Prior knowledge:
The chain is built from 17 helices and 23 strands. By secondary structure, it is α+β, with helices and mostly antiparallel strands. The radius of gyration is 28 Å and the shape is elongated. An eight-stranded mixed beta sheet has the order 5-4-3-6-2-1-7-8. Residues about 80-85 and about 335-420 have low confidence and may be disordered. About 35% of the residues are buried.
Amino acid sequence: MGRIQVLDDALADQIAAGEVVERPASAAKELMENALDAGATAITVEIADGGVARLRVVDDGHGMPPEDAVLALRRHATSKLRTTEDLVRIATLGFRGEALPSIAAVSRFRLRTREPDALGATVVRVEGGGPPEVSQDAGPVGTEILVEDLFYNIPARRKFLKQATTEAAHVQDAAQRLALGAPGVAMRLIKDGRVALDLPRHASLSDRVAALFGTKVARDLTPVAVEGALAMSGLIGSPETARSTPRHYFTFINGRFVRDRVIMAAVQSAYGHRLGRGQHPFVVLHLTLPVDLLDVNVHPAKTEVRFSDTRVIHRLVSQGIHRALEAPPPPASEPTTPTATPRTYTLRSGDAPPAVVQARKVFDGLERQVRSAGGLRGALPREPRREAQAHLPLTPPPARPAPAAPTRVSYQPAAGAAALPLAQLPVLGELAGLLLLRAEDALLGVDVEAARAQVAHAALAAGRPGVELSPPLTVALDDAAQASLARRREAVQALGFEVEPFGGRSFAIHRAPAGLPAVDAPRHLADLLAADDGDVAALRWRCARRIAHLAAPLAAPERGALLEAVAAVEPSGGPAWIFALTAAELRRALGHGQPT
């Protein structure tokens, strides 16, 4: 008997399902996209146990006739492709013809659908990819899909799912993304009997953002608009509200949510010096592109695309955002009286604390004064002429050199040279955050912030207790952040945080990591909860870097203590903090050979 065999249909269906249905959120996304393609104006999603026990999606779209309801559960059956040429002209969200059969292959599945002119609804039941059972029943116009016991017949896949709170958070993220992509569609999400999202049909993207993230976030956003064959619209946040994680990049191409490095790089390029290191703006962008300019059929989950010319897309995004950032702000309707800021901060994923926001505003004010004097005008990209908005210039933006990866250098004195402790070496001065030391045969550079991070990390790893906050600070956490806190409570406590519920969405922070400014504790906690890496080691380094970044400038009397502390730390990863340039390397850099 030969070694190669044709898989039976059931096993082939389960393997194919693995490409489409990774978790409950994957199934929810596919079903919501199908609802949008069906012309739905209202979508309701219900989940139980994170969507594993139960996932129900109901829409008021055009529904399907009985014969289509049965065909929709056959693999490679779709209403959106007819010929090979259609593959390069895809304008719908769900098009693969695999979502429904893939979900039905790994669950107990029921589809109920009715067209507007039909007397009743068609019901199709499938269990674990088995033969469909078709019946007739009453029901409203539209489609209802019920998915129960997801992965019940693939225990190996089911055991890799996360806790119910985590899976539910992924479903909510998917619903939010679809809601931002279609503001005119009402969206409702019910988790374990509790309404988590209840969005009416909104007239504008700004209204939808306000409903999802609050009016404070929406008021801060600036509209973006580029017209033409390649069009772009959306909203961008100010540099003051930038976050430390890229969770709030929401990019849609022809209505489809995508994650694309070209677009993210263009956004960062447009903001340029306005953003601090590691900061990411709040961005919601809708790009409208000719279908022959992109290929959406490159990823099973349809979240990635391929462009025929990435330079055109980069120019569209970067120059459109740059114009919006450079536009003068609208005149204020009436003066406002400043009020005292209470010691309560509402954070979703890393809002800047008041002190940091105020400092950035002062910096931006100085920057605007320099610009008005013409000091930086030559260094900044020119604003495109208004009549050229529909046809972007063909001059590509200057390429940025890729940052070199940091390397840890172990300095060993040459033979005969004095091996002195770092704290005893002469200090030549500071340059761009580097402390320059003179050794017998080399020039040493110590990155002050990286050295402080090493010291802070060692203190955190040693279990240094947190500092009591008096009075405690409160922070409001959304559902995703609360789920993250429940999942990572021990890791967060290990850093020195002491957090407890304070009623509703509010949580009280009684202790914070030592060395972290108290005013930054709410924002830093939100950033930790939003981080993708949730193990103790990764969170410890995030916390150490934040402590070092927010530390006061290094005073001359503190240099010796820092050098002694960092030299005593056992290396355990993290950023490189020291480099050495030997005398021979310095001579070569100057074009000189070895001394004679």
